[in-house]
Amino acid sequence: MDDKIFPSLILLTYKGKVLLMHKQDSVIDEGKHPWCLIGGIKEKRESFENAMSRRVEKEMGIKIEKVEYVSEFCYHARLTDDNVNKIQRAENQLLDFFTLKEVGNLFLSNTTAQFISKHGALI
């Protein structure tokens, strides 16, 4: 069995927009920290779906129920009004919703850009 550990990403959508995260050390350090999807690595005996739910809860303070498999290491969940109303942002963390067109103007991490390029129709 392959022991390599790969991070997975989750595309969180809400009313035709995607939720992206930007962590920063200072007010202006965009080049250092691009906008990205929430992601993480699963723990032993944990499903990728549960790992994605756990990461969303850790990063945003909300529980998501239905995590869908999209492709290898790529998942998707639609946020509800209740989810959006309960989002908690950590210090030095920006969370914002963008249309697919707006995403095209952002500085994205490589993995986020690849995911959205491949699965943007989910937005």
CATH fold descriptor: Nucleoside Triphosphate Pyrophosphohydrolase
How many helix segments? 4
Number of strands: 6
Categorize the overall geometry.
globular
In the CATH scheme, the class would be Alpha Beta
Encode the helix/strand succession as letters. Answer: EEEHEEHEHH
> Structurally, how many domains make up the residues?
1
Which ranges are low-confidence, i.e. pLDDT below 50, for 5 or more consecutive residues?
none
Task: Supply the CATH architecture.
Answer: Alpha-Beta Complex
Structure classification? alpha+beta
Binned strand content: 25-35%
Query: How many angstroms separate the termini?
Result: 35 Å
Helix content: 25-40%
The CATH superfamily title:
Nucleoside Triphosphate Pyrophosphohydrolase
Q: Radius of gyration over alpha carbons?
A: 14 Å
Characterization of this structure:
The protein has 123 residues and is α+β, with helices and mostly antiparallel strands. The model has no long low-confidence stretch (mean pLDDT 88). The chain has a single domain, classed as Nucleoside Triphosphate Pyrophosphohydrolase, CATH 3.90.79.10. A hairpin with a 2-residue loop joins strand 1 (8-14) and strand 2 (17-23). The protein contains 4 helices and 6 strands; from the N terminus they run E-E-E-H-E-E-H-E-H-H. Strands 1, 2, 3, 4, 5 and 6 form a 6-stranded mixed beta sheet that branches. The protein starts with 7 loop residues before the first strand and ends with a helix.
